[in-house]
Amino acid sequence: MATKHGGDIGSRTLILDRKSGFCDSTSTFYSKREPMAFPPNQFLDVTTFISSQPHSGKTVFVDAVTGRRLSFSDLWLGVERVAGSLYALGVRKGDVVIILSPNSILFPIVTLSVMSLGAIITTANPINTPGEISKQIDNSRPVLAFTTCQLVSKLASAASNSNLPVVLMDRNYVPRDEQVKIVGRLETMIETEPSEQRVKQRVNQDDTAALLYSSGTTGTSKGVMLTHRNLIALVQAYRIRFDLEQRTVCTIPMCHVYGFGSFATGLIALGWTIVVLPRFEMAQLLSAVEVHRSSYLSLVPPILVAMVNGAKEINSKYDLSSLHTVVAGGAPLSREMIEKFVESYPTVKVLQGYGLTESTAVAASMYTKEETERYGASGLLAPNVEAKIVDPDTGRVLGVNQTGEMWIRSPTVMKGYFKNEEATAATIDSEGWLKTGDLCYIDSEGFVFVVDRLKELIKCNGYQVAPAELEALLLAHPEIADAAVVPIPDMKAGQYPMAYIVRKAGSNLSESEIMGFVAKQVAPYKRIRKVAFLASIPKNPSGKILRRELIKLRTSKL
């Protein structure tokens, strides 16, 4: 059965398959969702857009540890005052401001203030090493940093050569001997009416709003430029998908696109109350759900797996009766795991989704309980998303139920990689198609299934790990002749990095020594968890590591 479909596809009338959304004439899958509406004003920043959204919410943020609350009026007054203070410090449109902080009810005030000026917020992961943060600072060249007392020494080490001015996010912290230039306190900014009148610069929807760093297969972390239009599109996708004025608990890192998109932008526009945990701790998470009567939870698969494994104790200890929806993202969940979760928590539905940092975390998603019953799927294409399935070897465009690399085109696709035109051109073609690097197929009902990763990235606890980055570290060891890194499956984390090592002649380098060498230089999620020794690393004639052979070898040994 086919149906005519027009809308925003263009002036042509296309004939689409009613069930799959596939069009033979364009070899393209079109979203079956109702399209999103976009504000006509080209000169609009995402902060102004979010603050203008109608809802009846009262409290926006609650600190799960201290109980401190922020109302929506507190939030927007704070954003206005902090923006004024930043302007007084010289922050202008196009400047980059970095935030290095765990989850906090003040985190969104910083990000929304920066973006309201037309400046660019870049988020650094607080568990990253000073070396990793230093690379981000060197690439993004921020004019100002926000951080906490626990992280100020790490920032000082990372920014040792840049004399980066710092605003402290703690209320009563007195700096010690850290070599940083303290220029203000966030709490003071929030409480003080700026003395200088701010001249508002016009912000175009196509201007960069956020710079989020994503691992690449080369091992070089790349800054993903997300525009105000990208983030407005994310907000609109949330408005279609979720109810207004719900309650949730934030345990996903706000520095990551999943947490940034949900808790620092999207859900604010819906009038939600967000209970913030500084970091994941299962007992605190479950207590927060019980005490604050959370209706939704956004989780990565390892947390969901832990809830399944501890279901008996959890159900006896905590009242989770308010919870009706878990939103899962970051990596695919197996049919078996979803079935076990629903069996353990029968009143809760699991809405899966699929997206990338490069697509503002939006590509495919589930809306309803009926859609959750399509086990193994990531949902239907999100509103306004178009997709192609492309044979990675021949470039031929495929159809329904055929597996290939998924390409997507949508208002959420990034502007490009910061200061990296070569990588941008390799990822987004001249027609705006983003090559996801994921092997997928779309079935006869329009559901997206992620089969495998064409890219070599390892997904550990929802984070991306580039094998090439770890291989470069390993090859710097004086007793290692060659190295290759592949994923090893794990029930809790999803995957961990495993290293195959060729020792130099005469070396007795041990597994624990190698793991310790890497652990000192990388964030915890990048650490090597298993080492095997080989006489040589299998490679093709051009020298490319044959990871598939190593994965087969790993599987046969397990």
From TrEMBL:
Signal sequence residues: none
Transmembrane annotation, as ranges: 257-277
AMP-binding enzyme C-terminal domain: residues covered: 469-544
Keywords for this protein: Ligase, Membrane, Transmembrane, Transmembrane helix
Xref: Pfam families: AMP-binding, AMP-binding_C
Location of the AMP-dependent synthetase/ligase domain: 55-418
Gene3D superfamilies: 3.30.300.30, N-terminal domain of ligase-like (3.40.50.12780)
Family, similarity comment: Belongs to the ATP-dependent AMP-binding enzyme family.
Name used for this protein in its record: 4-coumarate--CoA ligase-like 2 isoform X1
UniProt organism field: Camelina sativa
Taxonomy of the source species: Eukaryota, Viridiplantae, Streptophyta, Embryophyta, Tracheophyta
